[in-house]
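Everyone, describe these structure tokens:
***
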Amino acid sequence: MQLPEGYAPLFVDGVTEPVGAVTTAAAGVLSRLVASRPDGFALPARDLRGALDAALARLLEAGLCPPLRGEAIGVRAGRDGAELARIDRAAAGPLGLLVRKVCLVGHVAGETPHVWLARRGTGQRTAPGLLDTTVAGGVPAGTTPEETLREEAREEAGLTPERLRDARPAARLDRVAPGPDGLSREDLLVWDLAMTPDERPMPQDDEIAGFEPWPVPDLARALVTAEDFKPGAAIVLRDALARWDAAHGG
């Protein structure tokens, strides 16, 4: 795992690959909960859950963690590693934990090919008001990506499980970048869905303010700077455009 400057790997004793990454400030707050070692810091394997709960409490008290999300994510070493423990999703940034996410790109072919982009609600905790893929969401602990995709597609875009049978796995991408709460690490699982010209996704909750049909040329130009896009969505959409261009001999 390549880390930006200012971050050190966070391991679990006995596990070769790191589960996360922390700043010096976070490591200081976690003193005696994590052990310092030449290649970074380590959580105890014994009572890992207790150590993580204590770490979360300290980070919250020190103001280094955003408010709790009420949704647990799995703590794992590597994107295909076994789940070692669970912790509230709010700890993902401060501890640099990997968050598995699903993304659906709904696209329409034809004379004016376009992609349906979701405009996130202005009240959202992350990326308020920015553009996102047609459907996106984090995978909670104990839930499969496919289950999460079905639920998010229903809640955000009004797409039924029957309609999602036509969705095709398209890519698996990584994103690692410093964020306001620590290190953002995302395992992005991407599906493509070919939609008909008369289909329109419809938001079913307040997470999504609405959907916008973006012609592919306009989308490609906007993604050069991607100022109006959620960071993970920009990565997914650039990859989708490159895949489609290659498939058509571009």
